[in-house]
Amino acid sequence: MTKAPPRNDKFNERRAELGEAALQTLADLGYARTSLREIAQNSAFSHGVLHYYFTDKLDLILCSVRQYKARCVTRYDEVTTTSTRFEQLLDGFTEALGDTLRNETTMHRLWYDLRSQALFEEALRDDVEAIDKSLEKMIWRVMQRLSELAGSPVKASSEAAYAMLDGLFQQCLLKHLSGDKKAIAAMQASVRQVLLQLIDAPTAAPRAKPVRRKLATA
């Protein structure tokens, strides 16, 4: 794939606008069934306009997915920075995982579709690898904060932790798309299990025994 030549800021802003507008069509149709012409038919933009700003469908797809994933990588930052207890972050993170899978199903499907296509399309690999690395860093920020709150180290590398959680997420996505209504809850439970195996939860401080007062005798 020949990448579109760099232009001025207005040109790049227009590309970003078109990439955002095409995102839903891409998510609905997937990589194999999407062309610039198909995107034009499902959007307010003509085929000629899209072809002017993008060299081909790979250029457009990567532009769209980069923008979407750039938002994704900050998805858990709020719960990570605001949580002050281990259990609070554990609950908030697993809840956010379920919410994004439920509410943005087709977008996540597009990402896994694109990542699989990178096995065959060499032109996709650099971009997919860069996006994947940013997602790994996103998960690692959560892991590090959990580690801080627990006062216990993470018993795995960043790559291993990401691979485990990403595998559970992708497995759940397939089940959810197949109509499994229990898939998200099962994924959340599995993620909790993995996290508690990778990071020792803080132990609750033992409660002080109540002091019995002796009754005064007459």
Automatic annotation (TrEMBL):
Note the Pfam families from the entry: TetR_N (PF00440)
Q: Which residues form the signal peptide?
A: none
Which keywords appear in this protein's UniProt record, sorted alphabetically? Answer: DNA-binding, Transcription, Transcription regulation
Record domain HTH tetR-type: where:
12-72
Keyword Protein biosynthesis annotated: no
Classify the source by domain of life. Bacteria
User: Where the record puts its DNA-binding region(s)?
Assistant: 35-54
Q: Which SUPFAM superfamilies match?
A: Homeodomain-like
What Gene3D superfamilies has UniProt attached to this entry?
Tetracycline Repressor, domain 2 (1.10.357.10)
Protein name (database record) = AcrR family transcriptional regulator
Q: Which organism is it from?
A: Hydrogenophaga laconesensis
